[in-house]
Every structure is written in C-alpha cells, then in structure tokens.
Specification:
Layout lengths: L11 H51 L5 E8 L4 E11 L2 E8 L10 E5 L3 E4 L12 E5 L7 E5 L6 E5 L14
Antiparallel strand pairs: 1-2, 1-5, 2-3, 4-6, 6-7, 7-8
C-alpha cells in the first residue's frame, strides 16, 4: 500500500508570491484612494457651505417681512460659516441662527476663494440684498477636482458645480 502525504498550509514561495501581489495592488490603488479622500473633503466643505446658504435663504422667508438673514463665510481655510438674522445684537453680542465650523466636519485645509466679499444677505422675499458673494471656489492644494458655488442673479439661489468641466457641458458643469 502507498502512503499518501497530506499537504497542509502554504509553502514559503507561495506566501512570498501572495505578499508581492498584494504589495503591487496596494501601490496601484493608494494614489487613487488618496485623491478620492481629497475630493471627498472638498465635496464635504462645499456641501456644508451649500447647507448654510440654503438655511439662510429658507430662514429669510420664515422670519417675517422685515427680516434680513445674513450668511457669512468666516474662515477661508476650512469653509466655516454663520447664519444670523439682522439685526441680532443683544447686549452687544450677535446671536446666530446657525453656525458651522469646518474643522469639526473634516473640512480643514480647504482653499476657499470668494468673489464679491464673504457675506450674502437674503430678504424676506427670498431675494438677495445688493452686493455680496457672487461665487465661491473650493479646492485643495494638490490639484484635485475643485468645486464652485454660483448664485442665480435675481433669487440668490446657490448652485454647486464642477469648475473644470466645460461651461454648460452637462448637469455637473458650471452655467457660467
């Protein structure tokens, strides 16, 4: 009778080949994963700013005909913002309706470029009081996909778009 030898486990060569394949796959996937994380950080900051702008616009119509609601971008390195009703000074302090700190939301080290100032004010009819922010560009320093927030002229409705796409080339492209 022949005795059969049972094989258990992996040989050293099989283990080395497996580790080498994993190392090659990781080296290919790591740069793409880093870019994905940076893009997510920019998108998170842009969505936070959009939430603040939407909050200001909605609050302006619910606070009465004489109310003015102001959105202020307070920090251009982390997309922090505040929303206040004007005038809201009580004992010398401004009382915010809502506020966001980008540092708490994972939006730190974001480059924010503002066009037209850092404030936009909405009146009770969902319109924009003259002047204020006309465009917000958000990006990170190493060239990932930047995002832009633009405003419709009459209503002040914010729209988020990808600034690298050709103008009006699709739903994600900027209208102007």
């Amino acid at each position: 009778m022949k005795a059969y030898r049972t094989i258990r486990g992996f040989s050293l060569i099989e283990l080395i080949v497996g580790v080498a394949i994993l190392a090659i796959l990781a080296s290919v996937a790591l740069p793409a994963f880093k870019t994905m994380l940076l893009n997510a950080r920019v998108r998170n900051a842009a969505q936070s700013v959009m939430a603040g702008l939407t909050k200001a616009k909605n609050e302006s119509s619910t606070r009465g005909p004489a109310a003015l609601v102001q959105f202020t971008l307070t920090d251009t390195t982390d997309a922090s913002w505040t929303v206040v009703q004007l005038p809201t000074v009580i004992n010398g302090a401004v009382i915010p309706i809502d506020a966001s700190t980008g540092k708490n939301e994972g939006s730190k080290n974001i480059n924010v470029v503002l066009t037209g100032g850092n404030i936009i004010t909405y009146n009770a009819f969902n319109g924009v009081v003259a002047g204020g922010i006309t465009r917000i560009d958000l990006s990170v320093t190493d060239g990932t996909k930047p995002l832009r927030i633009t405003f419709k002229a009459a209503s002040g409705t914010p729209t988020m778009c990808e600034s690298l796409l050709p103008l009006n080339s699709g739903p994600r492209a900027c209208p102007y």
